[in-house]
Amino acid sequence: MAASWCTISSPSTSEGVSLTAAKERGQLVFLEGLKSCLDLWFGEQEEQSGQANPLQFISKSTSDLRALFDFVQVSLTPASSDSWKGPVLLVDDLSVLLSLGATPVAVLDFIHYCRVVVCSQLKGNIVVLVHSNEDSEDEENELVVNSLCHHSDLILWVEGLATGFCKDVHGQIKITRRVSLELTGEQDVVQIYQYKIQDKNVTFFARGLSAAVL
User: Fold this and answer.
1) Nearest-CA neighbor of 104 among 150, 54, 143, 152?
2) Residue 65: how many CB atoms within 10 A of its CB?
3) Has this prediction a pTM greater than 0.85?
4) For residue 166, which of 3, 43, 64, 97 sits 20 to 30 Å off, Cα-Cα?
């Protein structure tokens, strides 16, 4: 929702993945949030297939995300038994909904119903991007982040180095596998890696094993 189609599709092409081709084959449905907002603000909204603008809540007094959920449900519902096996819903990023005026409860309800449809009914997965930091004073955003972490099977926490800038290490990623959700009595598995962003890929390595150290 936060990026345009050009921003998303261009980098993927350089990596050998054509999102445009996937979109033409019906394997990808992309919601351009900025365009949807502009359509509402400047009165250029055009309903397609009888569906309202997914972000119509920004023009109303209540933060009802039903239209956005309906868009997700219609987009991911398989037309035949041979399509949409294991669909993936990518939300980039969820914090935008809060910035547009949606309440934390409405955002969490939206994710809950998406989880029911995508994960339970269609046996797929949901990947959500949110932003947070320890010093944040945005209580609504932190409420959403904490709730998402509580219900997630896998958490990827990406942050910069606490020691500041380094030419060979750009940050670290903490991977938490929520084994505790399976009620087996086991503790969550936590792995921490550092990374370096390169021209066309990202290199990951254990802490202390960067090129600068070795």
Assistant:
1) 143
2) 24
3) no
4) 3
